[in-house]
Amino acid sequence: MFRQILCVAVTLAAVQAAGELTILHSPESVTFRGEEELSQTVMTEVFTAALGNTPKLRSSWDGMAINDIFDLPEAVVVVAVEGVKSIESPSGKHYPLIEDESEETTWQALSGRLEERDKSKTLIRINLEDGVDALGQSVLGELKVTPIDESSLKSLSVKNKWDREFLEQTQLLDALTKKVSQEITVDDKADLYWFVVSALPAVIDAHRDQPAAVKEAFAILNNALSRLSSAFMDAYKGKVIIAAFTNDASHARHTRAAGDEVTRSIDNITVADVNPSKEYDETYPVMFTIFLWFGVAFVFSLIAICITIADMDPGRDSIIYRMTSNRMKKDN
Q1: 322: Cα within 13 Å, side-chain hemisphere
Q2: What is the pLDDT of residues 13-50, one digit of tens each?
Q3: What is the DSSP letter of 65?
Q4: Quick one: how far is CA 124 from the chain centroid?
Q5: In 99-255, where do the E strands start and end?
Q6: Closest C-alpha to 21, from 215, 247, 217
Q7: Shortest CA distance to 204 belongs to which of 214, 194, 196?
Q8: How far is CA 175 from CA 144, 147, 180, in A?
Q9: What is the pTM of this model?
Q10: How far apart are CA 168 and CA 146, in angstroms?
Q11: Cβ(166)–Cβ(198) under 8 Å?
């Protein structure tokens, strides 16, 4: 019994929120509120619902409210920062994030959900770790990276391998930012852009005794995210959700390993899916809207007809007279 309780405790500890979701921008039609934690699987459902699609999993997370279903965001932009607990952004809404899957798994789930609805949507994932050589001719066009200005650095140095790789990723992010206004064409289809930054943990490890260098790295990253946000806000005229989340890949692997160990150790415990939601066809929102407004129009039309008949003068040229005249004569 003690062993079972211990295994459950280990599992619960392993899945505690170790990351963070930061909403950098959202349009007026979608409001993010509160500070309740959520998991990456729920994050997929949140962005799915924000773009007007029906979520497949039921969740009690109430950190997002849709204010206007007829003016939903036209795109979601996500920056995944691997290996850190927080990007330490001074702005935006922050939520503790439970890392129950890898960054790439979340991308596949979200992009797959959107592709099911419309295969012509723009779905772009760019891993900045690939470098300018691999991304030189990206889906956003040819990238021209600006050389690193060493004079602007205070504690970081291009001579340090880890610093240089991190700076190259932020420079590549800036190059992609410049392509946003040139290459993106806004249409009536929801788009998804996904960028992965992975070089920050190595910088933190290399400067454990230099907090100024770590602070500078976070400042550089947040400045790059701010420029990226501004570019997408201009391109979509504000109708876009821009978010950044942190994901420690090693932490996710440890969590899954702990879960496997608990499964092997506890034979009498069955894990079940609680409150599974009903799956709806992709035409459900359209049919629901048609029936809803038809019902509203029908009810008001019926009320108007009843009022008109009630106020009608029962003269000889009216339908009331014609239907009751014979009865009136017979009664007389």
Answers
A1: 3
A2: 444 557 999 999 999 999 999 999 999 999 999 999 99
A3: E
A4: 14
A5: 123-127, 137-138, 141-142, 191-197, 240-247
A6: 247
A7: 214
A8: 6, 11, 9
A9: 0.71
A10: 9
A11: no
